[in-house]
Inverse folding.
């Protein structure tokens, strides 16, 4: 009897281990190995080489994990290290950190669909490129799909609407350039939708207001325009991130449970709705860099959970009520660059280490040089009202004129196309190709395409900035007194910097550049053109260049000078030490500097293609202007200093 009990116990233990040991079916093993081949054997999957088919027992890492259930793969997570950099591929400008020309996204997805029980699929930074195939819908069990930081373009395929179990969809950092699908409301379980850092156009789809399960909507850094629909039906929504788009409607009431609302850098107009003052769970509100006006909604400051409130760079007017109260959690307030007048309420005027308040560029009654006179704000508001009536009449006339011109052009185009019909019919039977207009021989479309993309991305930052031009050597010699030692500002690893004064009286900083390799004149000008497109409020503006002694046969360039705007208040390091002659910055000002630098770095990393890294981020390279606004210098030097030019010649 005792032996029988022992036998039963042994059988139970064996069954337990058998039940928890998964041996994948052979077709799934082959599918995984084929996926590794499609991904061109990334180092993150080297552990798959000697696994003897026992993928389910592999130790998870930060870059790879596999979870199995019932002898099938249910979770597959792979994270690579591919970065964005454009190059030319069959006449197109495409990222050269993608998988090779032989990669087929159709074959890749076909192989993926053999893992039919996948519930979680994460494929991040693997260089996957191409339009996402419709057949992705065959992964019918998917609950989470994350394909961030790849190079997917085109539209999100309609067939994905059949993935009804999906609760998380993340396509951040790709190149989708169609409109946002209006079929997302077919997902009954969708909680997180994140499509930031793409090139999505069109309007915010009204159908999204029907997805009541949503907790996160992240559509920032796209090209969305038009109206923001009523989202109050989204009772579970916690995060709404629509930063850096072109939305230009008035604000609408928002769901009550929101904790984070990021609507900065759009073109929202009108007043902030009264309902915003009832969002008692709101912790982070950013409405900066819009065209919002009227009186500031006092209820925003007293929200019980609010900790961060940014209303900067709008056209709010009037005065803040003296009885204004601030919530106990409020730690950061920015109302700078508006049209506010009067006294600052006590809850914003109290010096406290627990609350940072930014109020510059208003007309407040404060003893500071960073306020305009009260007349400035009143005049600006009255001018706005007067101009509005004139603008309406002018706009009407312009629209009528444009309509007449467009009709004329359409008629002319129709006549032209009729005359060219025979030729067009022949052309339709030719293979399509992309022609880079105005491109010089041996000049790749990479730099030309990058320059266009950067110019679009930096459009806002370049408004009002001086135009870029070519300086003569005579101008620089006169401005710097023949590069006299008295004009020398400093010397770094990439050359000396001189202070100069141009003929119009403007001061500049002239950098004499030490270029270790000799570039062709044409190649160098392409690099300089690319660098000139880096425009942002917190970057030191590059005003122009001078190439001294370029050979007439376009061979090599002996000397290069870069001309920057002159920043008068020294570098950040000089404002940190008590031994310096510069004024020591307060903690609130230091935080402002760091936020500005973070915005500049964010622009260099995400606002330009290719992203600019290795930007010499040091306290000595952070310069302060007369208003203590931070500007990053020495950025983008890798474009001029990189050792190899084989892809540019």
């Amino acid at each position: 009897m005792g032996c029988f009990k022992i036998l039963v116990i042994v059988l139970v233990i064996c069954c337990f281990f058998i039940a928890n040991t998964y041996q994948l079916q052979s077709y799934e093993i082959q599918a995984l190995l084929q996926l590794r081949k499609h991904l061109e054997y990334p180092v993150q999957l080297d552990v798959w080489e000697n696994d003897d088919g026992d993928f389910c027992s592999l130790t998870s890492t930060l870059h790879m994990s596999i979870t199995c259930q019932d002898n099938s793969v249910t979770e597959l997570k792979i994270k690579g290290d591919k970065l964005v950099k454009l190059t030319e591929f069959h006449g197109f400008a495409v990222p050269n950190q993608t998988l090779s020309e032989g990669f087929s996204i159709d074959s890749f997805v076909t192989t993926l669909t053999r893992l039919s029980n996948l519930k979680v699929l994460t494929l991040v930074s693997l260089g996957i490129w191409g339009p996402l195939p419709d057949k992705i819908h065959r992964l019918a069990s998917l609950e989470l799909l994350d394909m961030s930081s790849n190079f997917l373009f085109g539209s999100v395929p309609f067939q994905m609407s059949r993935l009804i179990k999906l609760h998380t969809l993340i396509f951040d950092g790709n190149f989708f350039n169609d409109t946002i699908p209006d079929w997302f409301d077919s997902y009954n379980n969708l909680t997180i939708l994140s499509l930031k850092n793409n090139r999505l156009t069109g309007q915010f789809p009204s159908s999204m207001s029907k997805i009541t399960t949503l907790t996160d909507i992240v559509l920032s850094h796209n090209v969305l325009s038009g109206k923001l629909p009523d989202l109050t039906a989204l009772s579970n929504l916690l995060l709404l991130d629509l930063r850096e788009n072109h939305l230009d409607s008035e604000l609408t009431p928002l769901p009550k449970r929101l904790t984070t609302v990021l609507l900065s850098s759009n073109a929202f107009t009108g007043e902030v709705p009264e309902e915003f003052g009832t969002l008692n769970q709101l912790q982070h509100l950013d409405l900066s860099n819009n065209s919002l006006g009227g009186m500031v909604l006092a209820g925003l400051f007293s929200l019980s959970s609010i900790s961060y409130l940014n209303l900067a760079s709008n056209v709010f007017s009037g005065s803040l009520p003296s009885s204004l109260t601030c919530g106990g959690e409020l730690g950061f307030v920015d109302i700078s660059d508006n049209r506010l007048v009067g006294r600052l309420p006590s809850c914003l005027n109290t010096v406290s280490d627990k609350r940072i308040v930014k109020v510059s560029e208003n007309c407040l009654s404060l003893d500071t040089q960073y306020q305009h006179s009260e007349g400035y704000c009143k005049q600006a508001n009255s001018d706005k009202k007067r101009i509005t009536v004139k603008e309406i009449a002018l706009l009407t006339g312009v629209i009528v004129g444009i309509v007449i011109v467009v009709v004329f052009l359409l008629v002319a185009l129709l006549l032209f196309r009729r005359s060219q019909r025979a030729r067009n019919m022949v052309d339709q039977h030719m293979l399509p190709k992309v022609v880079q207009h105005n491109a010089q021989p041996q000049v790749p479309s990479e730099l030309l395409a990058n320059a266009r993309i950067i110019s679009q991305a930096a459009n806002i930052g370049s408004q009002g900035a001086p135009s870029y031009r070519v300086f003569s050597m005579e101008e620089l010699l006169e401005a710097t007194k023949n590069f006299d030692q008295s004009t020398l500002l400093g010397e770094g690893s990439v050359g000396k910097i001189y202070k100069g004064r141009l003929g119009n009286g403007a001061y500049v900083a002239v950098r004499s550049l030490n270029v270790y390799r000799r570039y062709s004149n044409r190649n160098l000008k392409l690099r300089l053109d690319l660098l000139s497109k880096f425009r942002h409020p917190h970057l030191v503006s590059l005003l122009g260049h001078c190439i001294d002694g370029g050979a007439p046969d376009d061979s090599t360039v002996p000397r290069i000078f870069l001309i920057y705007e002159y920043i008068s208040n020294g570098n950040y390091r000089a404002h940190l030490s008590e031994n310096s002659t510069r004024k020591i910055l307060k903690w609130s000002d230091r935080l402002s500097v760091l936020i500005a630098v973070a915005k500049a770095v964010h622009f260099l990393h995400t606002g330009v293609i290719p992203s600019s890294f290795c930007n010499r981020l040091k306290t000595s390279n952070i310069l302060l202007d007369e208003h203590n606004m931070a500007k990053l210098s020495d950025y983008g030097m890798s474009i001029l200093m990189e050792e190899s030019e084989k892809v540019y010649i």
User: Anything to note?
Assistant: The first helix runs from residue 2 to 19.
